[in-house]
């Protein structure tokens, strides 16, 4: 199983969440490709941890639909599932719309400026065909409202579906770099400035509804 050479976890860090995030991110970025067999020992050596946190991480990833475990046989990175991507997109759209609705009474000029800066980085990354920078900037744009929503459960529930969507974006970035997201973000920002809360929520929902799977 080809895995990245350098461990992303400092040797002193053995947190279960770190192990989960490291394997999840390798799957999302395509470093661990669909169909790739995952071996506890190899992953443990890469991350410098025992098999226990690796197995726990793989169980969480199976629940998220990113790996497929065959009891008594093997664990593999899950193949792309168009139906799962559609389902994830629907859930993400509603959760982001809820986050925006809750955040709007609390968003201030600094928040809007932060969103504008993230959107500028998104546009630049798309023009440079930099998938990692583009996805990070898009995350930063939406993170402002999610944080200001004051409801941490939204982020918890988005964890599962966002991983599915981000993997699709990484795997198909070259065919999707003409994404309209920056333009949609500009419309969202205009609605926020105009205090048109209903429109801002609707545009946020549409922004996630049209993501390509």
TrEMBL record:
The keyword DNA-binding applies. Residues 13-80 form the HTH gntR-type domain. Pfam families: FCD, GntR. InterPro entries: GntR_C, TF_FadR/GntR_C, Tscrpt_reg_HTH_GntR, WH-like_DNA-bd_sf, WH_DNA-bd_sf. The keyword Ligase does not apply. SMART domains: FCD, HTH_GNTR. It comes from the Bacteria. This is GntR family transcriptional regulator. The lineage of its organism: Bacteria, Bacillati, Actinomycetota, Actinomycetes, Micrococcales.
């Amino acid at each position: 199983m080809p895995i990245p050479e350098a461990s992303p976890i400092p040797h002193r860090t053995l947190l279960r969440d770190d192990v989960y995030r490291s394997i999840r991110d390798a799957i999302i970025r395509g470093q661990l490709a669909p169909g790739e067999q995952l071996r506890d020992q190899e992953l443990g050596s890469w991350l410098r941890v025992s098999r226990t946190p690796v197995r726990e991480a793989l169980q969480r990833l199976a629940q998220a639909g990113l790996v497929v475990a065959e009891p008594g046989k093997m664990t593999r990175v899950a193949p792309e599932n168009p139906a799962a991507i559609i389902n994830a997109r629907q859930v993400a759209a509603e959760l982001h719309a809820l986050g925006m609705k809750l955040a709007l009474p609390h968003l201030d000029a600094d928040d809007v400026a932060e969103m504008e800066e993230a959107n500028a980085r998104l546009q630049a990354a798309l023009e440079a065909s930099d998938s990692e920078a583009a996805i990070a900037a898009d995350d930063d744009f939406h993170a402002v409202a999610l944080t200001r929503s004051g409801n941490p459960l939204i982020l918890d529930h988005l964890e599962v579906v966002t991983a599915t969507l981000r993997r699709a974006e990484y795997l198909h970035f070259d065919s999707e770099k003409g994404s309209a997201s920056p333009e949609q973000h500009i419309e969202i920002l205009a609605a926020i400035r105009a205090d048109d809360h209903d429109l801002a929520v609707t545009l946020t929902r549409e922004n996630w509804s049209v993501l390509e799977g």
